[in-house]
Automatic annotation (TrEMBL):
Gene Ontology molecular function: any one: serine O-acetyltransferase activity
Protein name as annotated: Serine O-acetyltransferase
Naturally occurring in which organism (per UniProt): Floridaenema fluviatile BLCC-F154
Record Gene3D superfamilies: Hexapeptide repeat proteins
Organism lineage string: Bacteria, Bacillati, Cyanobacteriota, Cyanophyceae, Oscillatoriophycideae
Assigned keywords, A-Z: Acyltransferase, Membrane, Transferase, Transmembrane, Transmembrane helix
EC number(s) reported in the record: 2.3.1.30
Keyword Acyltransferase set for record: yes
Family from the record: Belongs to the transferase hexapeptide repeat family.
Membrane-crossing segments per the record: 6-27
Amino acid sequence: MMKGILNQVITVLELTFFLPQLLLFYLTNQKEIIINDVQKWVSVFEWKESSDLVNLLTLNSRNKEFRNLYYYRISKGNLLARIFMKIVKPFYPECSSLFIDPSCNIGGGLFIQHGFSTIIMADMGEDCWVNQQVSIGYKDKTGRPKIGNNVRITAGAKVLGNLTLGNNVTVGANAVVTKNVPDNCVVVGIPAYIIKRDGLKVKEELV
């Protein structure tokens, strides 16, 4: 019982330390999309039901990768919140090996699992999932990827160049994608090829 009380006290103190992050949330005009992110992360972690604001504080306190995403959202919003972010950011550092290009447009519900050595430089749809050591971005000057909704890019994968990943696509671990991928496909390999389309096993080259 004593241990449980101590844990609760530590949790309260931890969340109290992160209260400026909550003020940052109140200042921004990006509240809706931030809440979408919070709800996605909570769903993945299968946390017990709590308020969105408590979950926002908890995610900020426990997950540096979430802070990267949070600061990215703030950077897309109004000037007052961006200024306040510059003040509070040194006290709550983000994951230093995770880079999200501020020029990207990313839909709500992005989940980043283990953001170590990961680069996200693409326009993305909603409810996407990115793992560690993933590189998404330019191959040359022709452009960067455009990624649909509900796309999962797993550990070590590379998605490079002016291409499109359709909706409901999964990119397998360490795959290298340099061509368009249709909707509802799973791709693997170097170079990547389709092993599942619309739930059926196939073996198709990307074109």
